[in-house]
Design a protein that fits this description.
The complex is a heterodimer of chains A (95) and B (490). Chain A has a domain of 38 residues. Helix content of chain A is 34%, strand content 9%. Chain A has a two-stranded antiparallel sheet. In chain A, a hairpin with a 2-residue loop joins strand 2 and strand 3. The longest helix of chain A is centred in the middle third of the chain and has 18 residues. Chain B is α+β, with helices and mostly antiparallel strands. Chain B folds into 3 domains: 299 residues, no CATH class; 113 residues, no CATH class; 57 residues, Arc Repressor Mutant, subunit A. Chain B contains 16 helices and 17 strands. In chain B, strands 1, 2, 7, 8, 11, 12, 13, 14 and 15 form a 9-stranded mixed sheet that branches. A 3-stranded antiparallel sheet of chain B has the order 6-5-16, with no helix packed on it. In chain B, helix 10 packs antiparallel against helix 11 and helix 13 packs across helix 15. Chain B is elongated. Classes of the chains: A alpha+beta (95), B alpha+beta (490). Chains A and B meet through strand 1, helix 3 and strand 3 of A and strand 3, helix 1, strand 10 and strand 17 of B.
Chain lengths: 95, 490
């Protein structure tokens, strides 16, 4: 499996990464090298083997239901380039 | 599911009949104190970004930890939908960019949801029942909220809802009319409210629907569907389906083709319109969330939750029919809200169930609707209404006086028994007193007496006069019998 230039541009757009036309061939070959490695991995027979989700077999930790966080609006918007009345401000997006 | 199309549900087009096919995705906010993966509050409203933790704001390095209560509520909902519960399920990332989604992805469940196939039985009108297949229920995060009207060039983002747990309940395309779709959402809402797993408040956005609509000629394969996003009232769901089905039929009859797309319903204009901007980004690139292990629990946990479920609407309805002799329709009306059902049972306990149902549905609900009140705020308590039913049952008051008494209890309150004593509302069963009134009316109206002998239906006029002269307190059966005897009619 390999990707063409159009697919590279599409992936970049979906990830909101600005990629110039000059950069596309380089990225294309990098992605194709990764996909070639994946093809090698696909040769391993994993029939009947469950995907490994954790190095140590353990159950997912769950929290009790209770409010233990929040009330820190100052801190939440502290790094925002723009904010007003504790709202984040972003360039206008309307459907 | 794909049986014969019902003629009554078909839509007439210019070139013949069309069948509308509907499937729904309902987003129901899970009732919990804290969010799905953080300890921030789920309370509605609040100051901007006040119910937000660093997890909900997707600050670097923050990790999600699942709220056990949300898992419990999802399982209970699955049990209420007669659905398969999956002891292992997986959280995935659904990737898309929007300012109110700080992570850049929504944590959802894709290939392995917590709840699998189930079904819901839905009453459509008084004498039709349909079974709607449930494809799955999964847990996912809600997004934040964007405000576009606060500034000329900027949008404001509030993340208070970000990370609140939602259950997405996906139906099969089993619905065939807007009526069926509305009945399905109503039923689902009732089940969720009985279970206490979602408050069902559509105004606050706790329950929202994405509606998939397509049309076809009866018997043909499914047509291309359009998805109408985020419809937030049951009435609008019905309108959106009608409008969208008409739009698609119009295109097809003109020889056009339906494009699969996402649309928005505008209730003001009564139309749906394309949301093309989102189409382009419709590639969600799901993959398992590496921050979360698979969600697992054992069957014993599920069994314990099943044992603790409340009586659900279908079971309650069947019991009301069997125990109190109610009609399926009346039973359905009473069980639509758990609080109404509880109120009815308090009135009906130890009394005539049918009489109790009549009073609750016709008098009380009628009056509550008129005032725009919920049953929780009824000025007449179940005990008071029960006493009124008793007073009619033992012949102390007539049905007509009972309505007056109900009005007094509604506006002034008080013990109905004492009110009857104090205000002299007791039914007059003393034949002497009634006879006196009858004699007076007969004596005063010789012309009507002659007419009544010719035309026995005139009796009703005499009954009315006697009731009037006795202030409605005369026993109607006694009045009838006496009048017949005096006028000499059968």
């Amino acid at each position: 499996m390999s990707v063409d230039e159009k697919t590279v541009k599409r992936i970049a757009h979906l990830a909101r990464i600005a990629v110039t036309d000059a950069e596309v061939p380089h990225l294309q070959s990098e992605i194709n090298a990764i996909l070639a490695f994946v093809e090698t991995l696909e040769k391993v027979d994993v029939e009947g083997i469950e995907p490994m989700t954790s190095v140590v077999p353990m159950a997912m930790k769950k929290r009790q239901d209770g409010v233990t966080d929040g009330g820190i609006a100052d801190a939440i918007v502290a790094n925002a380039p723009l904010s007003e009345d504790h709202y984040f401000m972003v360039p206008k997006v309307v459907e | 599911m794909n049986a014969h199309a019902k003629p009554s549900k078909l839509i007439k087009g210019a070139t013949g009949d069309w069948e509308v096919v509907i499937g729904m995705e309902i987003h129901a906010q899970v009732t919990s104190e804290a969010k799905l993966f953080s300890g921030a509050s789920t309370a509605f409203g609040g100051e901007a970004n006040d119910h937000v933790s660093f997890v909900d704001a997707a600050m670097p390095g923050m990790l999600p930890v699942i709220n056990e209560e949300c898992v419990r509520q999802a399982i209970r909902t699955g049990l209420g939908l007669n659905a398969q519960i999956n002891l292992t399920s997986v959280f995935d990332r659904k990737n898309y960019f929007y300012p109110d989604l700080p992570q850049g992805y929504q944590i959802s469940q894709y290939k392995s949801p917590i709840v699998g196939e189930g079904e819901v039985v839905v009453d459509v009108g008084p004498d039709e029942q349909i079974t709607v297949g449930i494809e799955r229920l999964h847990l996912e995060q809600d997004a934040g909220k964007s405000l576009h009207d606060q500034h000329p060039t900027m949008s404001f983002v509030d993340l208070n809802r970000s990370g609140v747990a939602l259950m997405e309940i996906v139906s099969r395309p089993d619905l065939r009319s807007s009526e069926e779709a509305k009945a399905y959402v109503t039923k689902l809402r009732t089940i969720l409210r009985y279970l206490g797993t979602c408050d069902g408040d559509m105004e606050k956005g706790s329950l929202r629907a994405d509606v998939n609509v397509s049309v076809r000629r009866p018997g043909e394969p499914f047509g291309t569907r359009c998805e109408i996003k985020n419809v937030n009232s049951i009435r609008f769901i019905g309108q959106a389906i009608e409008v969208e089905a008409r739009r698609q039929i119009g295109i097809l009859e003109d020889g056009g083709r339906i494009d699969q797309e996402t649309r928005l319903f505008d209730p003001g204009k009564g139309e749906t319109r394309s949301m093309r901007s989102k189409e382009e980004a419709h590639d969600y690139r799901y993959f398992p969330d590496p921050d979360l292990l698979p969600l697992t629990f054992d069957q014993a946990y599920v069994d314990a939750l099943a044992a603790g479920l409340p009586e659900l609407p279908d079971a309650k309805k069947a019991r009301f029919i069997a125990t109190y002799g109610l009609s399926p329709y009346d039973a359905g009306v009473l069980v639509a809200e758990r609080s109404s059902a509880d109120f009815f049972e308090t009135v009906a306990r130890g009394r005539d169930g049918k009489a109790a149902a009549n009073w609750v549905i016709n008098e009380l609900f009628g009056r509550l609707n008129k005032q725009g009140l919920g049953i929780e705020r009824s000025p007449v308590s179940a005990d008071q209404l029960g006493a009124i039913v008793d007073l009619i049952g033992d012949g102390t008051i007539s049905g007509k006086i009972a309505k007056d008494l109900f009005e007094i209890v509604w506006t002034e309150g008080g013990d109905p028994r004492r009110l009857v004593e104090e205000r002299g509302l007791k039914q007059v069963t003393d034949t002497g007193a009634i006879e006196k009134a009858v004699d007076e009316i007969v004596a005063a109206n010789p012309d009507k007496v002659a007419q009544a002998r010719e035309k026995p239906t005139m009796l009703g006029w005499f009954v009315g006069q006697v009731m009037k002269s006795t202030g409605g307190k005369a026993n109607p059966q006694a009045v009838n019998a006496l009048l017949k005897a005096k006028l000499g009619i059968e």
